[in-house]
Amino acid sequence: MRIPWESFLARYRALGRNLAAGLTGSRDDADDVVQEAMLALLRAERDGERFATLEHARNYFLRAVRNLALRRRLSAANHEPLRESLGELAFQSEPLPEFGGLASELEREKARLSALDAAVSGLEPDARALFESRLRERRTLAAISDETGVPISTLHSREKALLERLRRAVERAGDGP
């Protein structure tokens, strides 16, 4: 079956775009991902891969969108330590000039980032190892479980408690002056 491109694009472009935007967190990136997925679908069709039905082509397209979006999100992840990745802005001590409330918002954001940095720095070794594995190395709970022997459900509970603890530390800093 040949893909009817005009009707295919009209029907599935928005779905692919919403999927990509949800995975990448960016509408601009979503447009790029959808375009790359369309090119992958076109190449597959030209290289002789036959799609038995339009649904098969749709599934190929959506799977390509998902894979490309996840790859884009992972490549954008920064593996540097938190303090280095935030840059010096978060840790400046001199006051910022007033720009219609922007300076006070920047100060609040600096306080939140400093609180997050302090909370991460103060984690006990097990919690810090989980934080490093999950959020910086982007490892799955299953991979961590295989390595450590700790059940996935236990790791999930620990991760949930850890994130809540970090969230509370940031919220407390945001409530300040």
How would you explain this protein's 3D organization?
With 177 residues, this protein is an all-alpha fold. 11% of the residues are buried. The radius of gyration is 22 Å and the shape is elongated. It folds into two domains: 72 residues, no CATH class; 94 residues, Arc Repressor Mutant, subunit A (Orthogonal Bundle), CATH 1.10.10.10. 75% of the residues lie in helices and 0% in strands. It is built from eight helices and no strands.
For the structure shown, list the relevant keywords.
elongated, 177 residues, 8 helices, mainly alpha, single chain, 75% helix, 0% strand, Arc Repressor Mutant, subunit A
What is shown here, in short?
With 177 residues, this protein is an all-alpha fold. The chain contains eight helices and no strands. The chain is elongated.
What CATH calls the topology of the largest domain is Arc Repressor Mutant, subunit A
| CATH architectural category of the largest domain | Orthogonal Bundle
**N-end to C-end Cα span:** 64 Å
CATH fourth-tier homologous superfamily of the largest domain: Winged helix-like DNA-binding domain superfamily/Winged helix DNA-binding domain
Instruction: Report the mean per-residue pLDDT as an integer.
Output: 80
How many helical elements? 8
Spans of at least 5 consecutive residues with low confidence: none
Indicate the percent of residues in helices: over 70%
Gross morphology is elongated
> Main sheet?
none
CATH class of the largest domain: Mainly Alpha
* Overall strand count: 0
Residues in β-strands, percent? under 5%
Gyration radius (Cα, Å) is 22 Å
What is the structural class?
mainly alpha
The total number of structural domains is: 2
Elements, N to C (H/E): HHHHHHHH
